[in-house]
Amino acid sequence: MHLETEVLVIGGGGAGMYAALEAARTGASVVLADRSIVGRGGATVMAQMTVAAALGEQVPDHWEYHLADTLAAGRGLCDARLAAMLCEEGPHRIREMDSWKVGWAREDGHIKQAQAPGHDRPRCVYVDFLSTGPAVSRTLRGRVNAVGGIRRISELAIVDIAVRDGEACGATALHLSTGQIVTIGAKAVVIATGGLTRLYRRNSASANMGGDGYALALRAGAELIDMEFVQFFPIGHLAPRLVGMDPIMWDPFRYKLGGKLLNAEMREFETDYAARDTRSDGRYVLTRDLATYAIFKEVEAGRGSPAGGAYLSFQHVPEAEIRRAFGPVVDRLAANGINLAAQPVEVAPIAHYHMGGVRVDERMCTRVPGLFACGEALGGANGANRLSGNAITEAFVFGARAGQNAAEHALARSNGYSADATRCTVDLLRSASRRDGPNTAATIATLQALMSDKVGPFRTGRTLQAAETALMEITSEIGDRPLAAESPCDPVLVDWLDLRNMLLVARSVTAAALARTESRGAHQREDHPGLDAAWEINQIVSLESGRLRLRRQAPTIDRNAA
Amino acid sequence: MKATLIVHRGVPGEPERTEQFEVAFEPGQSVLDGLRIVRRDIDPTLAFRFACINANACKECMMLIDGKVEYACTSRLKEGLTVLAPLPKKALVRDLVTEIVPPDERL
């Protein structure tokens, strides 16, 4: 089957839906493709609370203050153009979402803004109770359905971007529930596929976040930036086992109620590490990289909780106050056998977000004309460590920008699609076969264990080299033709295509992490502790004749740079 | 602890059939955890839907669990037999996967 559109948006999360809306508003026809169901998969729907924007509703604020916090958290590596855009345009998008009745929590007649770590003042809006992601997704899905010109296609997994004469001209896709190969002609393509947390065993995003967009971009000739910076969320739920709730749910509890992080001696330890953070004011403000470090170090010193993390306790908070702050969530916890007033839970760092991603200019365009990226899929805005609350804001801001720019690009040119541009990938899909091969689901689990153990928040040259070798072994094990079972709805074929992407992305992360011989933000080399001023530099990954290539470039510190 | 999952297999038009899988589990694990263990350790061809794994946000893993419509991510695995079948009022695609995509989002 073949489809034609002006703008193809890949990924139906917050960034993708915003991109589709803005592309349509600019006058382009849009296909919005999601490998799962539009507005249900991805990371946005999982968000529970904070969305940062300098609205000045709670206390006076200015986007320059938000930018200062974002740049400080980024440890010198932010692309100032992207960071400034995020902070300056954030308030507009938050108010636009408000006008679409997303339901930001209010207090005394104004939008309520909560304090989050790394921010100099209360700046984060949210939807009660822990419903930010579902509310945002529902609101955007409603808009996308209501405006004309957007064709939504669920269960459409994009396998490769089509490139002709160096320009993006569409894509090749697999429609999962029918097994059909679909080619798409598009004058502009927007990658909005989110991050890569699925590369890790314990992660907080959906199973769709395997770094697809990074692999698509690399194979299309675009570059990636800052791939070594994987953010671990310090207090992901560890024990007792909790079902039906997002593992990163504890942060909002801490914002509202001030939970205490305790080690096995039931002693608070955050302050032991607070001096390391120049932005710490001595309260609960350890940024995510430092909190992750603190918990790992406590566990390493033999002061971890039984399941291998830290205790998080709300026992000092009166039961009625817990109920007032979290209403029905308290009942969901009770169904899991957890009573916060009576017992602590165990938490540990969990893969949460990727700072790195597709390298774009101030128009969200990659070095491949017609190929754009937005949301978590792009890299650079958050440098070496993302500030809490910036992820949903960047989904809105970069999504809208990418959608508008992609539409303008598309409307200014004629159709560049030709079947030659998709032939290679169509042939790849047709070559899928049932043959003896590894269990693809087990191979994904092996890859996740490898990345967690050797390319996690703490790395050494030795673990990274071992990872490189193991990744090449897995790459040769799965072969260069797809493994398949039976079509349609073939989970083996999907696994194989996922592995093709995941392995390429895992190798990109590992190569960049091995080259960076210092510790900065989310990248901590135990054999190279401490920040090295000479490394205030971005690493850029590309794929040249099938090989990964790494180069270095000074960060863009001029926010007006063209 | 061991759980035995009796799972509907196949595509429309085929005679009804089930397969039985035995998985080790820890108390607290979900039915979705069990299905993912089946794929990883026994049979990667088993098809079922999910995206968010654990958060009950994507709402994709709905199926018949012991005859009741439930989310696999919030139902707990139990010792002994559990019967898993696709949603009865939706068109079957394969195994436990049914056509739940809104009509205007289909190809």
UniProtKB/TrEMBL annotation, chain A:
<dbReference type="InterPro" id="IPR036188">
    <property type="entry name" value="FAD/NAD-bd_sf"/>
</dbReference>
<feature type="active site" description="Proton acceptor">
    <location>
        <position position="288"/>
    </location>
</feature>
<keyword id="KW-0560">Oxidoreductase</keyword>
<dbReference type="InterPro" id="IPR027477">
    <property type="entry name" value="Succ_DH/fumarate_Rdtase_cat_sf"/>
</dbReference>
<dbReference type="Pfam" id="PF00890">
    <property type="entry name" value="FAD_binding_2"/>
</dbReference>
<dbReference type="InterPro" id="IPR015939">
    <property type="entry name" value="Fum_Rdtase/Succ_DH_flav-like_C"/>
</dbReference>
<protein>
    <submittedName>
        <fullName>Succinate dehydrogenase / fumarate reductase flavoprotein subunit</fullName>
    </submittedName>
</protein>
<dbReference type="InterPro" id="IPR003953">
    <property type="entry name" value="FAD-dep_OxRdtase_2_FAD-bd"/>
</dbReference>
<dbReference type="Pfam" id="PF02910">
    <property type="entry name" value="Succ_DH_flav_C"/>
</dbReference>
<dbReference type="InterPro" id="IPR030664">
    <property type="entry name" value="SdhA/FrdA/AprA"/>
</dbReference>
<feature type="domain" description="FAD-dependent oxidoreductase 2 FAD-binding">
    <location>
        <begin position="7"/>
        <end position="391"/>
    </location>
</feature>
<dbReference type="InterPro" id="IPR037099">
    <property type="entry name" value="Fum_R/Succ_DH_flav-like_C_sf"/>
</dbReference>
<dbReference type="GO" id="GO:0016491">
    <property type="term" value="F:oxidoreductase activity"/>
</dbReference>
<keyword id="KW-0285">Flavoprotein</keyword>
<feature type="domain" description="Fumarate reductase/succinate dehydrogenase flavoprotein-like C-terminal">
    <location>
        <begin position="446"/>
        <end position="537"/>
    </location>
</feature>
TrEMBL record, chain B:
<dbReference type="InterPro" id="IPR050573">
    <property type="entry name" value="SDH/FRD_Iron-Sulfur"/>
</dbReference>
<dbReference type="GO" id="GO:0009055">
    <property type="term" value="F:electron transfer activity"/>
</dbReference>
<dbReference type="GO" id="GO:0008177">
    <property type="term" value="F:succinate dehydrogenase (quinone) activity"/>
</dbReference>
<dbReference type="Pfam" id="PF13085">
    <property type="entry name" value="Fer2_3"/>
</dbReference>
<dbReference type="InterPro" id="IPR025192">
    <property type="entry name" value="Succ_DH/fum_Rdtase_N"/>
</dbReference>
<dbReference type="InterPro" id="IPR036010">
    <property type="entry name" value="2Fe-2S_ferredoxin-like_sf"/>
</dbReference>
<dbReference type="InterPro" id="IPR012675">
    <property type="entry name" value="Beta-grasp_dom_sf"/>
</dbReference>
<feature type="domain" description="Succinate dehydogenase/fumarate reductase N-terminal">
    <location>
        <begin position="7"/>
        <end position="99"/>
    </location>
</feature>
<dbReference type="GO" id="GO:0051536">
    <property type="term" value="F:iron-sulfur cluster binding"/>
</dbReference>
<comment type="similarity">
    <text>Belongs to the succinate dehydrogenase/fumarate reductase iron-sulfur protein family.</text>
</comment>
<dbReference type="GO" id="GO:0022904">
    <property type="term" value="P:respiratory electron transport chain"/>
</dbReference>
<protein>
    <recommendedName>
        <fullName>succinate dehydrogenase</fullName>
        <ecNumber>1.3.5.1</ecNumber>
    </recommendedName>
</protein>
<dbReference type="GO" id="GO:0009060">
    <property type="term" value="P:aerobic respiration"/>
</dbReference>
